[in-house]
Amino acid sequence: MTPLAPGEQAPSRLRVAAAFAAVYVLWGSTYLAIRFTLESLPPFAMAASRFLIAGTLPLRVARWRGAPAPKAVHWRSATIVGVLMLLGGNGGVVWAEQRVPSGLAALLVATVPLWMVMLDGAGRGWRRPPTQVLLGVAAGLAGVAMLVGPGRFAGGHGVDPLGAAVLIFASLCWTAGSLYSRRAALPASPLVATAMEMLGGGAGLAVAGLVAGDWQRLDLAAATPRSLLAVGYLIVFGSLVGFTAYVWLLRVSTPPLVATYAYVNPVVAVVLGWAFAGEPVSARTLIAAAIIVGAVMLITTYRAKPAPASAATPPTKIESPPPAADNVPATEDEPALAS
Hints:
By secondary structure, the protein is an all-alpha fold. It contains 13 helices and two strands. The longest helix has 28 residues, at 225-252.
């Protein structure tokens, strides 16, 4: 939690609860909203329009309020982050939802903390993560294997292999972009940086739409009202309201508590997909969901134990580097791909 500025009052419990509800429900509902957009809109053209519109408004507001103009290096970094997270990450989710139910897509995306541990471990020379984290990674991979495995198991069929592969690739792209954003040269204003990332990612999605022929297939006159309303919902509630609430919570609440979105969003997505889109929920899905959500909880709730006070070393002795467990990244900075 960031310390409050002098004279700044602590937020009310009602405001905090409303922000958590926005992150839990709104981000969990974006998977179903994406499915509704795909009923009559091509995936990359829809996603590009969403992020270009959502990025333009906050950037203009921030500049109107006096935020400094971004530098060229800021645009380069924001574009890299946006391409990785929004083109590779969210774009992969949007494309995959043409083949995979929205609830199952959310479950596969919930494996982002697993890839976060693995990629961060590679960047740190493959230092061994703590046992709890390793158990979480192993359990998460087992849940994914159960979800996408071929054949019939526990009353349900496996997920479409290509769609599942794209979702896993999307999760890796989201993770890579998240890790890069931690050291990238970005504007000091989070609002400006986020808007620039959405614009960079939206531009990348627009190019992907050209390659895939989405813009040639786009016919707004043939778009259903539900698809158009879903696009508006994603722009307003998924990108603007949801992400704003998330960033604000990171300031006024504890990061471990905010990180609970990682295992609440899939539950919301599965329930909404079943209730409003008729997506089947088999015993296999429920078992795999429990395993994946439990694995994410193992990883996101890990905290290294402080060293005993009596274990101080003599002043003349060179202290050894801290164990790898102290450097395992928390996942509170990684919002859901579909947000």
